[in-house]
Write a structure and sequence with these properties.
about 15% strand; alpha/beta; 4-stranded mixed sheet; about 500 residues; globular; binds pyridoxal-5'-phosphate
């Protein structure tokens, strides 16, 4: 992302290049204070940033974000940035909501902590019931975690233990799509489809199997002209993989409603209906990994609702609290609970801070904001304008494709629009890491420049955004992408 420390790729804070292209909207209201300098020095001495080339900070400042308000965040120098990525696909309701912060504070003074190991507490119960009410079908059981990786990990563990419990002990494999990101803990990493971030940790738990993703812009020739045919081909590849692996060995398929990594691939029409049929045919669980796509990102509480399919498990995190406290979890169909509801049967899995009372109180207050302000309605009313505004960028020679749904978009950058030729590694390094990430950030936009697949810029703004924010994003992108093209 263009906060120069990208949590998903080994990037650091590139040296500043040229004059600071702060837009007219960007304001600087305070100078660096001595305490700011001390903070900077301390950060450089002691912090170890995630997925970050720390060497980039030997001679450069670490960007320190100190506060947020609405759709904007401010750095330690008082400079304002439009948060076009909701932090990291998290801040659905935007920043600085006192009522949500206060709900957390009230809960901390009433009951700061108690585990969900053999006990419950009221906020977890309330939240579980509320989530079950919002989720599609009979996803009535909630297992809380603290993060998305833990949610994914928990879903795989549940699938494995469930199949052992019902007498199908050979089912342990999981299918997921190429380039898809499903988290970083060892199990979640085995499901993740990005070879570059897996290799140092091999051998990973066995059983991860890859299937094609739904990148229509790069579809194979024989389905490149027909989106529906492409989608059915991609779904049928899941069936072929199940048959290849042996259906009796496959436990689950993990899919995001819109695949994030690679640059926001929406599902083609008919894709999820076909996947559901295939899963039913072979007794395989369909896990909808909605760590990004749930809680309004696509204009619905869950992405599965937008595309009309019924998952067996939904994994969630991020937007459930809009980041005011950490929380994740999985929503599970009643049927998956049955083998665990009699005698000594126990799901042998737990996490100390899962379903933390403060996080649950915050999640409830967050959902209250969704309702009071009709944030789903706001996304649905404005998504066509968001798309149209971003599509204006298609007149730039470097913009090959604009894709996504809701408030979740990817812009693919190409060297040649006609042939769709992409950048080689060296060009991509120079373009994304050497220029774009820093230039977009300097211009006052937090978004993400990612080259784990083909180079893309991603946008995922707070759900409170409207046309004026889309225009601000478009203008900054237009100016910086024009500069990028001239430097090629
Ligand atoms: C689809 C998906 N699954 C899982 C994860 C992992 O979530 P976390 O970083 O909270 O562990 C992410 C993180 O972005 C994600 O996008």
């Amino acid at each position: 992302m263009t906060t120069p420390s990208d949590p998903y790729r080994s990037q650091g804070h590139a040296p500043r290049t040229g004059p600071d292209p702060m837009g007219p909207e960007a304001v600087t209201d305070t100078a660096v204070t001595p305490s700011g300098q001390a903070l900077q020095e301390s950060a450089r001495r002691h912090m170890w940033l995630h997925f970050t080339r720390m060497s980039s900070y030997h001679n450069n400042d670490i960007p320190v974000i100190v506060r947020g308000e609405g759709q904007y965040v401010y750095d330690q120098n008082g400079k304002r940035y439009l948060d076009g990525l909701s932090g990291l696909f998290v801040s659905q309701i935007g920043h600085g909501r006192k009522e949500v912060a206060e709900a957390g504070a009230r809960q901390a003074s009433e009951l700061a902590y108690f585990p969900l190991w053999s006990y419950a507490h009221p906020r977890a119960v309330d939240l579980a019931e509320r989530l079950a009410g919002l989720a599609p079908g009979d996803l009535n059981r909630v297992f809380f975690t603290t993060s998305g990786s833990e949610a994914v990990e928990s879903a795989w563990k549940l699938a494995k233990q469930y199949f052992k419990a019902i007498g199908e002990p050979a089912r342990y494999k999981v299918l997921s799509r190429e380039i898809a990101y499903h988290g970083t803990s060892m199990g979640a990493l085995a499901i993740t489809g990005l070879p570059g971030i897996k290799e140092p940790f091999e051998p990973l738990p066995p059983g991860g199997v890859r299937v094609p993703n739904t990148n229509f812009y790069r579809a194979p020739g024989f389905v490149a002209e027909d989106l529906t045919a492409f989608g059915l081909w991609a779904a049928d590849e899941i069936e072929r993989a199940i048959l290849r692996e042996g259906p009796e060995s496959v436990a689950a398929v993990f899919l995001e409603p819109v695949q994030n990594s690679g640059g926001c691939f929406p599902p083609p029409p008919g894709y999820f209906a076909r996947v559901r049929e295939i899963c039913d045919r072979y007794g395989v669980l369909l896990v909808s990994d909605e760590v990004i796509c749930a809680f309004g990102r696509l204009g619905y509480y869950f992405g599965a609702q937008r595309y009309g399919y019924q998952p067996d498990i939904i994994t969630f995190a991020k937007g459930v609290t809009s980041g005011y406290a950490p929380l994740g979890g999985m929503l599970v169909r009643d049927q998956l609970m049955e083998p665990f509801s009699a005698g000594t049967a126990t799901f042998l899995h737990g996490i100390t801070f899962a379903g933390h009372p403060v996080s649950c109180a915050v999640a409830l207050a967050n959902l209250d904001v969704f309702e009071k302000e009709d944030l789903l309605g706001n996304v649905r009313a404005n998504e066509a304008t968001f798309r149209a505004t971003l599509e204006q960028l298609l007149d730039l020679p470097i913009v090959g494709d604009v894709r996504g749904d809701g408030y979740f978009y990817g812009i693919e950058l190409v060297k040649d629009k006609v042939t769709r030729e992409t950048f080689n590694d060296e060009e991509s390094e120079r373009l994304l890491r050497g220029f774009l990430s820093q230039a977009l950030f300097d211009a006052g936009l937090v978004c993400r420049a990612d080259d784990r697949g083909d180079p893309v810029i991603q946008l995922s703004p707070p759900l409170t955004c409207g046309p004026e924010h889309f225009t601000e994003m478009e203008q900054i992108l237009r100016s910086v992408l024009t500069q990028a093209w001239s430097r090629l």
